[in-house]
From TrEMBL:
Belongs to the GTP cyclohydrolase I family. Pfam families: GTP_cyclohydroI (PF01227). NCBIfam families: folE, PRK09347.1-2, PRK09347.1-3. This is GTP cyclohydrolase 1. It comes from Anoxybacteroides rupiense. The gene is folE. Signal peptide: none annotated. Homopolymer.
Amino acid sequence: MSNVNYEQIEQAVRLILEAIGEDPNREGLVDTPKRVAKMYAEMFSGLNEDPKEHFQTVFSEEHEELVLVKDIPFFSMCEHHLVPFFGVAHVAYIPRGGKVTGLSKLARAVEAVARRPQLQERITATVADAIVETLDPHGVMVVVEAEHMCMTMRGVKKPGAKTVTTAVRGSLETDSTARAEILSLIKG
Ligand SMILES: Nc1nc2c(ncn2[C@@H]2O[C@H](COP(=O)(O)OP(=O)(O)OP(=O)(O)O)[C@@H](O)[C@H]2O)c(=O)[nH]1
Ligand SMILES: [Zn+2]
């Protein structure tokens, strides 16, 4: 269920168009406020989702070794400028006590967290913490690589600059060999 107030977004977009000196009633723009409202409802749909809900179904599988889903594409919106940042997330965990989740659920959690006004660091940490709190694994490592449009098309204008963030939890905090293995699997 979306909590988005479409009408309010439409009014705001009309005001912005006016404020930049455009005519919101010209043919090409007349439906734009409606389109933007629909688009924001989709792009911010993660606000109604708890990433933890995706880890409610678990399989009992005695695999207490690394699981890594890498190169999960995501699109998010920088909360400072409301322009996109996008890239890939790599999610690794070491299950404990037979609590193994469906692989797609790791990607679903990334999606739920990305579809909000966000910071890259918060996406990284929120996904890691959701896994810790639901699956109680030995360890978790989340790596996010992204390009921020607010650094590319405006401001400092540095296209191609990539930001990499990591969140490490549990046994992986002290196990540098396992962390290195994960990083080499991500690169490989
Ligand atoms: N830590 C972090 N910073 C981000 C993220 N997305 C955007 N930013 C930064 O947020 C900062 C906002 O800085 P401000 O000085 O308040 O805004 P600004 O004047 O538009 O900054 P410039 O981008 O340097 O022109 C910028 O340095 C952005 O690069 C993110 O996911 N994490
Ligand atoms: Zn920004």
